[in-house]
Amino acid sequence: MSTAAAAAPTGSLSKPTNLAINGGTPVSKTAVPFMQTALAENDINQAIAVLKSGMLRAAKKCEELERRFGQMTGSRHMMTCANGTCALQLAYEPLFQPGDDVLVPAWSYIATVSMVVARGGNPIFVDALPDTFQIDMADAARKLTRKTTAIAATHLYGCPVDIDAVQALASKHGLKVIYDAAQSHLATYKGKGLGAFGDAVTYSFYATKNLGTGEGGAISCNDDALAAQIKALRSHGETDKYLHTQVGYNYRMNDITGAIGCSKLDRLEAETQKRRDAAAKYDAIISKIDGLSAPRTTPNATPVYHLYVAKMDPAKFTCTRDQFCEALKAEGVPTAIHYPRSLTRQPAFKRFSDAQGHPPIADKLSTMVFALPIHHGLTDDHTRTVGEALNKVAGAYRA
Ligand SMILES: Cc1ncc(COP(=O)(O)O)c(C=O)c1O
Questions:
Q1: For labeling, which of 4, 28, 150, 278 is most exposed (least CB within 10 Å)?
Q2: 41-263: which CATH architecture?
């Protein structure tokens, strides 16, 4: 393992000559694949079978996906839809009203919050916990207003939030709870599937997700009346043939997507375990490198590592997080930043953040986090390369 720093200072930043980015020999000439999205032969065959049947609309395959994924996540009703953004819209519409205040994470993917705004809700931005990156429920309690009627919490990167704390705040103040599990298929809390908690849970099956069908999504809930309402909204408010009892949408899935989802579902448990195994290896590597921290898991939660997001403390190095990642890339280890800015820094939410300010932890995370390659196709060689590259770059840029 090469950790030597051949440092040659340039201005305030050193320019270590052993690094590949400065002309040194890379740890690996071929890059570690950042993700694995290729379809298996069976996925393709199942999609072809639907094409041959001519039954392209939402039919048996979508129903099968709903039944099986519902069982696997511990929910009574699972409803497929066009994508994870539609899933959020379908869940939000019956659960809060325009003008309501909704507690939302300042650290998440934009859709969790933009669909609150699309519904006419006022997002109240809650800070993140620095080590798990999940919504900070102590901050949520501080930010509660008289107009707050709901919490929209993201199980981010594949790790469940502190569900006990969310549910306690919700029952104390009569709030509805929507969990965005777009990144957390098959994660559990206290041994139960995420479908057991809250008023509704939403999923995305976007191509890169742990269960990826291209585009696709789903909503789960345990209340019969709410499920009926969501199903109606999903299909133009239709409750009987050409009877539309409310204004709705066409947010349905189709059976080609459903067939790919069912086929991939066969492998999801095994593929999730591979992600956990790789994460355990990364944890061990990172725990020995001063200035880097592995993601922490919420107590009682079992994560699924949609992303493996580590933190780099720029004070411990002579480079920024972005320079650190550039150097890793040159060594053969691609990274990604989830996310380069907190949601209150998004121009789309300026009118809310002007009034509310910027939660400090979320702001700080945007300069510290980086995601390492994680997926079911990682080999021991890949994780070894990642470890060597992290040690080499950290050693070279040591402050
Ligand atoms: C946390 C989260 N919520 C919602 C979405 C939206 O899902 P989709 O892209 O399927 O609309 C995503 C997708 O990246 C996400 O990561």
A1: 4
A2: 3-Layer(aba) Sandwich (3.40)
Helix and strand numbers, DSSP H then E, in the chain: 12, 17
Q: Taking a C-beta distance cutoff of 8 angstroms, is the pair 150, 175 a contact?
A: yes
| Ligand 1 mutation target, pool 206, 211, 304, 337, most atoms within 8 A of CB | 206
Which atom of ligand 1 is closest in space to residue 306's alpha carbon? 16
Return per-residue pLDDT of the chain as tens, 399 residues: 344 333 434 434 558 889 999 999 999 999 999 999 999 999 999 999 999 999 999 999 999 999 999 999 999 999 999 999 999 999 999 999 999 999 999 999 999 999 999 999 999 999 999 999 999 999 999 999 999 999 999 999 999 999 999 999 999 999 999 999 999 999 999 999 999 999 999 999 999 999 999 999 999 999 999 999 999 999 999 999 999 999 999 999 999 999 999 999 999 999 999 999 999 999 999 999 999 999 999 999 999 999 999 999 999 999 999 999 999 999 999 999 999 999 999 999 999 999 999 999 999 999 999 999 999 999 999 999 999 999 999 999 999
| DSSP sequence for 339-369 | -SS-GGGSGGGHHHHHHH---HHHHHHTTTE
CATH code 3.90.1150.10 region(s) in the chain? 9-37+268-396
User: CB under 6 Å to ligand 1: residues?
Assistant: 83-85, 108-109, 111-112, 154, 180, 182-183, 204, 206, 217
Ligand 1 atom closest to 111 (CA):
4
Indicate the CATH number of 9-37+268-396 among 3.40.50.10490, 3.40.50.2300, 3.40.50.12780, 3.90.1150.10: 3.90.1150.10
Write down the pTM of the prediction: 0.96
Closest CA to ligand 1's atom 12: 182
Name the phi and psi angles at 195, rounded to 5.
Answer: -65, -15
User: Which residue has the CA at smallest separation from atom 8 of ligand 1?
Assistant: 84
